Amino acid sequence: MKRYYFFDFPIDLIFIVFVFVVLLAAMAVRLRKGGRYRDGQKKRGMD
What we know:
Elements: H1 2-46
């Protein structure tokens, strides 16, 4: 019983971390798509 519980707990943590990373990746893609033009204008303005 203890072994099964101890073996399943880390798997749950890995699953939660995996979902969290996927959400962060989705946010990064949205920021890249929406922020490319803004970043380009800022760089041109700074130069």
